[in-house]
Amino acid sequence: MKKTCKPGDLAIVISSVNESNRGLIVEVLRPHGERGKIRMKRDEPVWDVRCAVEMVWTFPGSERDPHRAKEGPVPDSSLWPIRPSPKRAKSSAKVRKEQADAQPCSK
């Protein structure tokens, strides 16, 4: 299965069992190795992510006592990476080069 994110990406949480997690911006840290307090095993890639605010994880039987943390696992399919498209990145680089090469204005 193709991954949409990679370590170092910023991403938006686009789907989550816990509505409060939707829309949060997270940093993708590393592939989730089923380590830590929360272990998530899926048939798809799962990432360990970090968020500036606490995220919420609930599991069957733990709805009344959800786990809250700033770091934890999120499936790749629940994340939308925030990065420029290759076309935009190339265009931005071209504009920066043109600006650097431009002659300063004279008064």
Distinctive features:
elongated, 34% strand, 5 strands, 107 residues, alpha+beta
Overview of this protein structure:
Helix content is 15%, strand content 34%. The chain has 107 residues and is an alpha+beta fold. It has one domain (10-101). Strands 4-3-2-1-5 form a five-stranded antiparallel β-sheet, with no helix packed on it. The chain is elongated. It starts with 9 loop residues before the first strand and ends in a 6-residue tail after the last helix. The mean pLDDT is 80.
Largest sheet: 5 strands, antiparallel
The helicity comes to 10-25%
Structural class: alpha+beta
Helix count equals 1
User: Residue-averaged pLDDT, rounded?
Assistant: 80
Question: Structurally, how many domains make up the residues?
Answer: 1
Count of DSSP strands: 5
Strand content: 25-35%
Round the Cα radius of gyration to an integer and report it: 19 Å
What is the ordering of alpha helices and beta strands? EEEEEH
Enumerate the strands of the largest sheet in spatial order, edge to edge or round the barrel.
4-3-2-1-5
Low-confidence stretches: none
Shape: elongated
Distance between the termini: 59 Å
Briefly characterize the structure.
The protein is of the alpha+beta class and 107 residues long. Helix content is 15%, strand content 34%.
Write the layout of secondary structure elements.
Layout: E1 10-13, E2 25-31, E3 46-57, E4 67-75, E5 79-82, H1 86-101
Antiparallel strand pairs: 1-2, 1-5, 2-3, 3-4
